[in-house]
Design brief:
The protein has 401 residues and is an alpha/beta fold. It has 15 helices and 16 strands.
Length: 401
């Protein structure tokens, strides 16, 4: 039943394969979908969708494949309810029939009920075998069975899954839109890494088993330090001028990074257009630290993330400044200051909100030769995070889009 649905998902770009099909089959076999379309919707979405960017495609595929199913379900429910409202009066049972009903236990009842569901094809009233009304069967409505399975009641939530899919509440989760705070938090969470630090007071089960096996079965307990967050991030953000249209986006990024609990250390600084020896502690470009001081304080293992449009007059890359950010003929050019940062950190990425089509032939292309550059979208941030977690990559001469 669901295989055509899987093909519909693949057609819409949701990568599902054998592993997902088997997982879904196992969930259905275990009854996790509660034998209803609503349950199937939630179970399938949980197992088949691996990224928030695929939620909208999943809803579209679900709506396309199952549209009309809820109407058929409602018609069947209405037919059943009409039957129950027209239930026949129960008849008196013989002592033998009553004794037989009383002798059935819960497991036997459930087994018989499932068998009857598979076999029954029409309405039944007044009998002692089928699921019906007014009879001596332990299944049905309005009968004489003192214990059994009552069939009846009001309708449930038919159609809820179709309504959720039809609303397409996730159509904003696309690869080509600028991120909101929630998406930023999800993407930044992929940067998390852990290290074992502190006093060894946690039982290492796997190593204890291995050590015991190597010790001819004599128990040997191995303990280890607990896992703690080990991600250290330096976040630099361009403010003012051409970045004004993206001020809200930078603010959301700062909010998402500040709320993250999986960073062992997060340092945030600001600059304007180009880095001239000094990084500021506020968006008003006050306080902060110098590039040499930052390099001395943080290790190469810190991840450097720079957010900015890298779009400026070409001469700005050549302005000379000292470590305090003041113009000085004897200072270093802005591009050289940025190269010092790139050379210090093993892992760095520049996130650019400008459309990639304007990158070539501008200062963006020049900066892109110093830092690996990625577009500030869901897809681009995902690529940047993957780059940051893979380790050091030689600086190239092409601009990444």
């Amino acid at each position: 039943m669901y295989l055509p649905f899987l093909y519909e998902l693949r057609r819409r770009g949701v990568p599902v394969g054998t592993q997902e099909a088997l997982a879904l089959a196992g969930a259905l076999h275990a009854g996790l979908h509660d034998s209803c379309l609503d349950g199937f919707y939630h179970v399938a979405r949980a197992l088949l969708v691996h990224s928030e960017t695929q939620l909208d495609a999943f809803d579209q595929a679900f709506l396309s494949h199952f549209k009309g199913v809820e109407s058929a379900g409602l018609e069947l429910t209405q037919e059943l309810m009409d039957w129950l409202r027209d239930a026949r009066e129960r008849r008196d049972l013989t002592p033998e029939e009553q004794a037989l009903l009383d002798s059935l236990d819960e497991q036997a009842l459930e087994r018989l009920f499932q068998e009857r569901l598979k076999e029954q094809r029409e309405r039944h009233d007044g009998g002692n075998r089928w699921i019906g009304t007014g009879g001596a069967s332990p299944f049905g409505n309005g009968g004489a069975g003192q214990k059994g399975f009552r069939v009846g009641g009001t309708g449930g939530r038919q159609g809820t899954a179709m309504m959720q899919a039809g609303e397409r509440r996730y159509q904003g989760y696309r690869d080509d839109v600028v991120l909101d705070t929630r998406q930023l938090e999800v993407a930044l969470r992929k940067l998390r890494a852990f290290a074992r630090e502190g006093i060894a007071d946690e039982l290492d089960i796997d190593e204890s088993i291995s050590a015991t096996a190597r010790n001819a079965g004599e128990l040997e307990v191995v303990i280890r330090p607990p896992r703690r967050p080990n991600t250290r991030v330096v976040l630099l953000m361009d403010v003012g001028g051409s970045m004004d249209p993206y001020a809200a986006l930078v603010s959301r990024l700062f909010s998402a990074a500040s709320r993250a609990t999986h960073f062992k250390e997060l340092r945030t600084y600001y600059f304007h257009n180009c880095i001239y020896g000094r990084l500021y502690g506020t968006p008003q470009l006050t306080g902060g630290t110098t590039v040499p001081e930052l390099i001395a304080q943080v290790g190469k293992h810190h991840k450097l993330v720079i957010v900015g449009d890298a779009y400026m007059a070409p001469y700005e890359l050549g302005i000379r400044a000292d470590a305090q950010g003041h113009y000085s003929p004897d200072g270093l050019e802005g591009l050289v200051w940025m190269m010092q940062l790139a050379q210090h950190f093993e892992r760095s990425a520049w996130l650019n909100p400008e459309a990639p089509r304007i990158w070539p032939g501008s200062t963006i292309a020049t900066v892109g030769r110093v830092f690996p550059m990625f577009h500030l979208t869901v897809e681009g941030l995902g690529e940047a995070v993957s780059h940051l977690t893979k380790g050091r990559t030689a600086k190239g001469t092409t601009v990444r889009r």
